[in-house]
Write a structure and sequence with these properties.
The chain has about 350 residues and is α/β, with parallel strands linked by helices. The chain is built from eleven helices and 14 strands. β1 and β2 form a beta hairpin. α4 runs parallel beside α6. Bound molecules: adenosine-5'-triphosphate (ATP) and magnesium ion. Magnesium ion (MG) binds next to α2.
Length: about 350
């Protein structure tokens, strides 16, 4: 009996440790690994400069950057549509140029440009797209994708007759036809209405729950704030920041405490000069900006000082900077502010 219990304990601890190991492996081994990647177009334009980036399996990674930063170029190289100048891209451990067919079949790409003014029906396009990757027909999968994208009712419609937003959703459906493990969404919600945008976010999350890795670019920073696990910022062909979204927001996000005063002040009293304060709204509102990373925010000191000076307030509220504000400052300073 005792031996049985001991054996059981050994088995449980062995199983736990191997499970932990498997989890670590899944977490650590990147699904995409980009090493020293550079690209100079035939025009001589240096679009990407020594990019090093790992994408983790099962994450939603948002690649943010201004127009012309190199996002589409990077995606096109990963998908094997544009040849890299130098460097290497590994997809699930395989080189994407020497193993193009195998690596490409793991990928679904929703391109930025709408280039599908075809006379084929939605359903025919989906089935054709799945066949292109050598997958057997699967009407249940196709129906599920079309229903998820609110396109089921339009399945017999010719794509050329769809609206712009519907065409973009067809592009997403097409990219999912062959059940890829990795999905690239290059500005997927440009031109999509608010309701469809939200339902697309839901769909992307469900894909992630099923283990699909998602890389998206967007100029709607709220989209990245809502969806992404990690954020990468690229500008002028260089990646300046790669960080967990929550860490990025905590590290660089500023918090503000806004106090609406009982009586207006003509200026900030000298006794408060050590606090980062701004007087607005004709002296009626005092705004205190503080660092979210610091242990002591200084709020209680400030409130004590205000009390001492007899400055009363009738309302106070705090707010945190959005990812959009952080992004703008990152692109302006090219990531310098993230360094400790
Ligand atoms: N085929 C090409 N030949 C020459 N230059 C190109 C080519 N394609 C892109 N470029 C240039 O490379 C740079 C990066 O373009 P890219 O399309 O990758 O930017 P992006 O970050 O996707 O921008 P956007 O947000 O506008 O989509 C731009 O300056 C662009 O003009
Ligand atoms: Mg682009």
């Amino acid at each position: 009996m005792l031996l049985k219990i001991v054996n059981m304990k050994v088995w449980v601890s062995y199983t736990l440790s191997s499970l932990r190991q498997t989890y670590e492996e899944v977490r650590v081994v990147p699904i995409i690994s980009i090493r020293n990647l550079s690209k100079t177009y035939a025009s001589g334009f240096h679009a990407l400069k020594n990019i090093n980036l790992d994408i983790r399996q099962g994450e939603i990674f948002a690649l943010l950057g201004p127009n012309g930063a190199g996002k589409t170029t990077l995606i096109s190289i990963i998908c094997g549509l544009v040849t890299p100048g130098e460097g290497q891209v590994l997809i699930d451990g395989e080189d994407n140029s020497s193993n193009f067919r195998a690596t490409r079949s793991l990928i679904g790409l929703v391109p930025q440009e709408l280039a599908i003014a075809t006379f084929e029906s939605v359903l025919a396009t989906m089935n054709f797209s799945r066949g292109l990757f050598g997958k057997a027909p699967d009407s249940i999968h196709i129906e599920k994708v079309l229903r998820d994208l609110s396109l089921w009712d339009k399945r017999h419609e010719r794509i050329v007759n769809l609206s712009g937003g519907m065409k973009r959703r067809v592009l997403i459906a097409k990219a999912l036809a062959h059940e890829p493990k990795i999905l690239f969404l290059d500005e997927p919600t440009a031109g999509i209405d608010v309701e469809q945008r939200h339902s697309m976010w839901g769909m992307v999350r469900r894909l992630r729950e099923n283990g699909v890795t998602i890389i998206l670019t967007t100029h709607y920073i709220d989209e990245a704030e809502e969806m992404a696990d990690r954020i990468g910022v690229i500008s002028e062909g260089e990646i300046s920041v790669v960080e967990e979204k929550t860490v990025l927001m905590n590290k660089l996000g500023k918090k503000q405490l806004t106090l609406t005063l009982q009586a207006p002040l003509s200026s900030i009293p000298d006794e408060l000069s050590t606090f980062s304060l701004e007087l607005t709204d004709q002296g009626n509102v005092l705004v205190y900006t503080f660092d979210t990373q610091k242990e002591n925010t200084g709020i209680s000191d400030l409130l004590r000082q205000l009390d001492k000076l007899g400055i009363d307030f009738k309302d106070l509220h705090s707010s945190q900077s959005s990812l959009e504000e952080i992004f703008v400052s990152l692109v302006r300073d090219k990531g310098a502010s993230l360094k400790p």
